[in-house]
Design a protein that fits this description.
The strands form three sheets. This protein has a seven-stranded parallel sheet. Strands 8-9-10 form a three-stranded parallel sheet, with helices on both faces. Helix 8 crosses helix 12 and helix 10 crosses helix 13. By secondary structure, it is α/β, with parallel strands linked by helices. The protein folds into two domains: 209 residues, Rossmann fold (3-Layer(aba) Sandwich); 137 residues, Glycogen Phosphorylase B (Rossmann fold, 3-Layer(aba) Sandwich). It contains 14 helices and 13 strands.
């Protein structure tokens, strides 16, 4: 296949179904002839659309255990990028929250990094290590100084940094001393597509969506709803292994089931410390409001009073107070209009402009250096 745009996509690892993976998949649609380089790829645990992408994983992908759980590969992932052949195409667009920004490039290749967050395990380790085993905490604590030096060198190789939110732009400035332009990630969920009701969910419910990690805060939301027996909660992908009468857990949810949940929830609720947070916007696409912690990327993605409300606090008591006082009637059309601001077309337009400008600027610099 001919790479007409001359653009390669790089992503940390393609093994799960999260917001960063949705963005990486979107990048391959913006540059449809591109190949995607990554450390690890597991087609069974990520979005099925990746099977239509030309994916080039690293040598680590030969180890099945690492494909199934990339956390086991944390001590090795920087080697996976250091040992890759250089990208020599016109440009590489990097989707990164910790590793892929180290992709090696030729002197004539422009590197544009779309940063979801500086690596949480290095710079926000308390959040990342919450709930981890002692062995993992000790290992990462020992490696952190080495990884921090490596990470800052990798960041310095980029021609331009783009952040997914103002909060992440501030972290990039603090950590790397780089000024990043902000482009919010797009919503790619199709609100008009088929919906399927998951098994065992009630008719009326609040919804929370997110992987079961400590900083996502799902356990506190569950604890709050356990004290509100008249309110139902549906947990997708989080900490609802032992659901009570008013709490339902749904794992391995299909896109059709997720659309059904978004469309019928009273609200999407989250106290996660998100870098941007696509799930509230995805819920808004269906006209469903959000109830969110006043922090991080949610400051960019919520239009208070129009697309949802901020929680009074992220404590269990604050969640209870906010849920019990949450309005049950909203202007669904106004919520959908808010979500339309985060369209794929707008994201594509802004990103292409940035990449083209960066390529032009990089080419001028290379020509000057060669002339000297």
């Amino acid at each position: 296949m001919t790479n007409k745009d001359g653009v390669v996509i790089a992503h940390d690892y393609v093994t799960q179904r999260g917001g960063a993976e949705r963005v990486a998949l979107t990048l391959t649609s913006i540059y449809p002839d591109s190949r995607l380089v990554t450390a690890l790829y597991n087609g069974e645990t990520t979005f099925p659309e990746f099977k239509n992408v030309d994916i080039r994983p690293s040598v680590l992908n030969r180890v099945k255990a690492l494909r199934r759980n990339p956390q086991f590969a944390l001590p090795l992932l920087h080697y996976a990028w250091a040992m890759r052949s250089r990208v020599s195409d016109r440009a590489v667009v990097v989707s990164s929250s910790g590793w892929a920004h180290a992709v090696r490039v030729s002197p004539r290749t422009t590197k544009v990094v779309y940063c979801h967050n500086p690596p949480r395990w290095i710079y926000q380790s308390d959040d990342y290590l919450m709930g981890r085993s002692l062995a993992v905490r000790l290992l990462l604590s020992a490696m952190r100084p080495i990884l921090r030096r490596w990470d800052k060198r990798a960041a310095a190789t980029a021609d331009i940094y783009v952040a997914n939110s103002t909060s992440v732009a501030a972290r990039i400035k603090q950590v790397y001393e780089i000024d990043a332009q902000v482009i919010h990630p797009p919503v790619s969920i199709d609100a008009s597509a088929e919906q399927n009701r998951p098994t065992g969910v009630p008719d009326f419910f609040f919804l929370t969506v997110g992987r079961g990690r400590g900083y996502k805060g799902t356990s506190d939301i569950v604890a709050a709803f356990e004290r509100m027996p008249n309110e139902n909660l549906v947990v997708v992908g989080g900490d609802a292994d032992s659901p009570s009468g008013n709490i339902s857990g749904v794992r391995d949810v299909s896109d059709g089931e997720l659309r059904w949940l978004y469309a019928r929830a009273t609200a999407l609720i989250s106290i996660s410390k998100e870098d941007f947070g696509l799930t509230p916007i995805e819920a808004n696409t269906f006209g469903t409001p959000a109830l969110l912690v006043r922090a991080g990327g949610f400051l960019d993605s919520l239009d208070e009073g129009k697309s949802g409300l901020f929680l009074s606090s992220a404590s269990v008591e604050g969640i209870i107070e906010s849920v019990e006082s949450f309005p049950r009637t909203w202007d669904s059309d106004a919520i959908r209009l808010h979500a339309a601001r985060f369209s794929l077309d707008e994201f594509s337009r802004q990103l292409r402009e940035i990449v083209d400008r960066a390529v032009q600027k990089h080419g001028l610099r290379v020509n000057v250096e060669e002339a000297c």
